[in-house]
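Anyone else keep sequences and structure tokens together like this?

Example one:
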Amino acid sequence: MAQRVARQNNIDDRNHTFWTALTISVVMGIVGAAILYFLGEWLFAVAFRLPANLRHEMVAAVPLLAAIVPLTAVISVLAGTLEARQAFIALNLGQVTGVIGLQILPLAVAIFGHPSMPMLLAAALTGRLIGVVVMIAATAHILPFHGRPHIHQTEIGPLIRFGGWMSVSGLVTPFLSIVDRFFVGGMIGAAAVTAYTVPYNLTQRFAYLPLALSTTLFPRFSTSDEENTRQLLNDGILALVAIQTPIIVIAIVIMHPFFNLWLGHALSTTYYPVAIILLIGIWINGPNYVPHNMLPAQGRPDIMAKFYLAELLPFLIILWFFVTWLGIYGAAISWTIRSTSDAIFCLIATKSLKVFLRGITPTFPAVFIALISVFMNFSDFFSALLEVLAVLLSIIISWSIAPTKLKTTLIQLKGLRYYGR
């Protein structure tokens, strides 16, 4: 939908697309909610293998879990509309409001003596609804709303064809993202899920940068000609390699002391290797966010959707093998293998693999030195020396491969900061 709205200059056309897409998404969300509602008890009893004393409470919360599905569908339509109109401040305001509500309201409910899972989920759902209200208000102003809500029949076909493939990606991708925890829980146990989930959730924060950049480029990809699109694609890939590499290198060298300070020595020795393995996957896959967003913006959401379907069975086999062999470290390795395969396929599909390799290959030594400093049993002084070398090398190399526009922007920002003094 964002791709169509980004190309529409007429208010009536944008409203036709918006209300039709919203109706279709809500209907599909209700179907998904119904499926989750009827499968909920089986999921908690068999798939998650919850103890009997916890199972009753989670089953009681299934209706609230199901309600999240259509709410998520509504959020996706609103977010796509705001992205298409390049209203990123309004989009971020709505999302941040929802996240704050999601965090604060369940905490408040627990403090006031209602820590049951249904109550906590109801509070979390209310928090997300507050964010949705903000996004609706922003959409009403920025789209803007015009006339009465209605379904435009001529929009249904293109939206279903385009949205069908987006829905396939939307269904398969979350499954690929969480199935590793199913395997860890089923093959190792519930305690291992926590040992894997903590570093996983932490490292996924490093994906926010490529996600944010690729999101801002989506409307430009939708409206640019072939030459400008290619330039945006190449610059975006190189910019993400240049920006991300020093961040990943720094994260690698501080991950062990960070977990040690946060959780203590006993847990940190288990958690930090998982985090570092996942960081390698984010480092490789991060620049892929740009071509990944370019494909649907150019009207080809089917390419990655078909690949996700094709990789599903091989990934499950790889996941089973590595979890059996290496436990939670095997799950992290499997995730990194999948992220790398996603990146390589998408880069090949968009004919940008050479640009990616030209950017990321020179950064290998910095990442390699960082890994050696962490995993090899050197003296503290020599390890610290290697870590400083890795960080400095990553910064120097990243500057050398950064696109000219990024360098110019950074120099201008530095000049503005100096002038402000």
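And example two:
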Amino acid sequence: MQRIGSITPQETLPILEANSIFFYRNKMEYSFSDARWITNTEVETGTTISNKNALGFHKPGMWDKVLQIDQCHLQTEPGNTIRNFIKQEAERLNIPFFNPRQQTGMLRTLLIRISSTGQIMVLLQFFYEDKHLQDSLLEAIAKKFPEIQALLDTINNKVNDTLYDLNIQTYYGKSYIEETMEGLKFRVNAKSFYQTNSAQAYTLYKVVRQFAALSGQERVYDLYTGTGTIALFLASKASHIIGVEAVPDAITAAKENAHNNNIKNTTFIVGDMKKVFTDKFIQENGFPDVVVTDPPRDGMHADVVNQLLKIKPKKIVYVSWDDKELGKIRIASSRGGKGKVISKQPGKYIEPSFSPDGKTVVYRKISGGYISDPVWGLNPGIYAVSSKGGEPKLVTESGVQPHFGARNDRIYVIRQGEKTQ
């Protein structure tokens, strides 16, 4: 913030730690492949590989190779049980796995959502339609896991795996599952954006509410509202909230969520922020006292930033994945402006990747780049490595991590009770 935007917050609050670094994600996406990643150990030992099918994660930097995952430490059960059953049943039914390079095979991706209420959604993407094979697999899943609330499927013969332009079919149950927060219920469908760490999302929303400091009289804009979770969370403290989102299905869900929670002081509008956030929009919807903005990771478009600078709301609460995006607001103002950053509340969201041997789980901070190099010769435990170099330092049992003062410090977690090779 200071380097890019010459912004020094009056107050930087302590980091709000995520309580769990394992089994915290409510959403996992896996890829099928008929050409899985072969580990160094398999190559060195000359293991005969008769089955190259995989259901897991893409290896970093190799879009056509998938690392088979038998035990995922990011999502709670029955996520692992469901994924492993689907792979075994698909192979029993002789359903061909997808090959992204050759664009062949039928089974493409698997999405599993498990909400904080324990509700489960399973979505299978098929590359082409074969009703007999589709129904055989889906029926087996429904019979094995009757606790699944939403069993869905779709046909995707595009080059990419994105869901937003696909027709999602409900094979069994409902088209959505529910998350809860302070008595509010949020419907989450296959295309919905919902923070993947439910517990930390609640922590984040409470910080937004604290920073907004609403008295009940304010008109609030919630930019990039998604399914309206922040807007609805703040609604009881505001006079009126206007949420804007580019994805039509998300706005439909936001309106449904408002109706289902009997919230009547919200308005949700579909539109691309850079196109709809104009003087006419302000005239039609009223001048905002407070603006909450939670944009995608690349931040707000310059036109949106300029409009915010133009209307000068009393307060902006910016939920950002990267401080430099907030700094751009300051840079964009040629007159400097009278705005100031009062408080900055850092929080931790951790994402994983895996080393090629599958034994080392490698964590990195959101603001840094992916780390693909494994750490060898360390006993199981959690280590931190400074971006400036040096030996890894073992995290203490009390959970206090070494602090190097650099944003690209590397965090390594060695698992499975083994030494790495």
